[in-house]
Amino acid sequence: MAGEKSGTKPEKPGGLGMEKDPPAPVEAAPRSKRMAYICWNDGASNFVEPGWEWFTCWRCGSLVYTA
Q1: 20 to 30 Å CA-CA from 62: which of 6, 31, 53, 54?
Q2: What is the C-alpha to C-alpha distance for residues 55 and 15, in angstroms, rounded to an integer?
Q3: What region does 43 belong to: left with phi over 0, alpha with psi -120 to 50, or beta?
């Protein structure tokens, strides 16, 4: 851990987790492809894009790695 920068986002794809999976804009649209992950810090469900390797929890802001 020595020499690592703290307080910066990882360089891999990721972003802010969502509390709820937003509904599809059209009734006949295919299902969402988002993944549901649980935050290690507070147990909140977060919906994230399938290619993301990290996200920040919508409730507590903790950084969570998916891979």
Answers
A1: 31
A2: 5
A3: left
